[in-house]
Amino acid sequence: MINSLRHIYALLLRQVYLIKRSPPRWISYVFWPTLQMIIWGYLNKFLYLQSGLAAFALTSLLGANLLVSFFERSNVQIMWGFLEDVWARNIGNVLISPIRPLEMLAGYILNGLIAVLIGMATAILVAYLLFDYSLFQTGIYLIPFISNLIMSGWCIGLLLISLLFRYGASGEHFGWMAAFIITPFIAVYYPVDILPLWAQKISWALPPTYVFEGLRQFIKTGTFNWALFRMSLLLNLGYFVLSIFVFMNQLNAARRRGGLFSMSE
Amino acid sequence: MPEVDAIQVQNLTKTFGGQKAVNNISFAIPKGRIVGLLGGNGAGKTTTLSMLVGVLLPSSGSITITGIDMLKDRHRALSRMNFSSPYVDLPQRLTVRENLTVFSHLYNVPRYKQRIDELAEELDLKSFLDKPYGNLSAGQKTRVSLAKSLINTPDILLLDEPTASLDPDTADWIRNFFVCYQQTTKATILLASHNMQEVERICADIIVMKKGEIADEGTPDGLIAKYGRDNLEEVFLHIARTEIIYDK
Description:
Chain A is mostly helical. Helices cover about 80% and strands about 0% of the residues of chain A. The longest helix of chain A has about 35 residues. The radius of gyration of chain A is 19 Å and the shape is globular. Chain B has 2 domains: about 170 residues, P-loop containing nucleotide triphosphate hydrolases (Rossmann fold), CATH 3.40.50; about 60 residues, no CATH class. The relative contact order of chain B is 0.17.
């Protein structure tokens, strides 16, 4: 057990050293969520002043925008942590060390979590300072919302690493697209029933949909819908197990095919 | 009870899309030997080493490392071995000390700070221990890479072209270091190299690979005598340019 923790700590330490030594990494963590926050914040302000949209709708948009960043950044950052080792040609060194695949996975997830927390803390602060919007107005219920979204991000992140095992470093192109392909279906800025029927079927199969439906309901009525939360959590757990299976499967397939040492394009 | 071999390979085969990169090879390396793995480009040396460290799964055959089945208990075996290869590198932005710290945790090294100081002393890393790895010269990087592969004081050390692209002085220094390390720790070293002089000088035994098979094996002097040549390079050229596989 202690050995496993040391292995996970090693990957975490590698990331901390990298962040410490490379200011551009800090910026990359902070840039996208903050930029998105600023754009949506001013759009909200404009709509509020010009169109007289209900305050509820505006709060939903801002809250949803902050929350969706937890999902988007979470999956990208997990992939990024792995890519750091690929880009540095260090992945071979990691794979021949006694670290086990599940420990590796835990290390990359923790790395991703650190990056997400750094980026999102900044975006939340910007939202508060510029637009007087506090994500914490949802109180304790923020935790289940965010946890579910981060977990969804982990599932996508692990599938993206599996793609890297399959396609080499060029698989990263899928990574940058993944969140944006899914976002239209998870009903971030609009309710699910606005989507065509076929798209709604996809939406309800995705855990983040339940989070955003729950968020809108919470902002409108002040009540937290536990049924939506449970459904999101169950789906997340199912997808998480599935993504671990795909990760292990693709790692073993890559060990059969070869090329893990010099993983490149 | 006879002592378990450090490395035992039996009927090892690796096929890529119908092509046999390694074809049914078997060999055993007793503990405490320095063994050279020779062969031209595409002979199957790197493929064999990759299977020995478990990043490549064999199509068939078995590998045991100090009695541990590599296919069943890879991670236990990996904690007792290490590997240095030109195909891998270390994160450039991290300092030498930071890189070694990360790997000391990956290998569960006890009293790792002391171990890093020891390696810094032995491999003459002290003057650049706190410099980013990316800022070092090729010779310095090789020494750091070697420090990484010795961080867990491995019983079995696998080296793929350890002195490639180094100037003669640094290469000589590295070779002396291997011999010294082996004598001090009684470790087993398997060294894949194109440098015949290097192999002749430091290896007790040699395995020559050709087209994925073991073409011959023996001591450097034994092979030189067997082929009636003056040195190992001539033996290598003879084997490389002859189509048949020699009787062992």
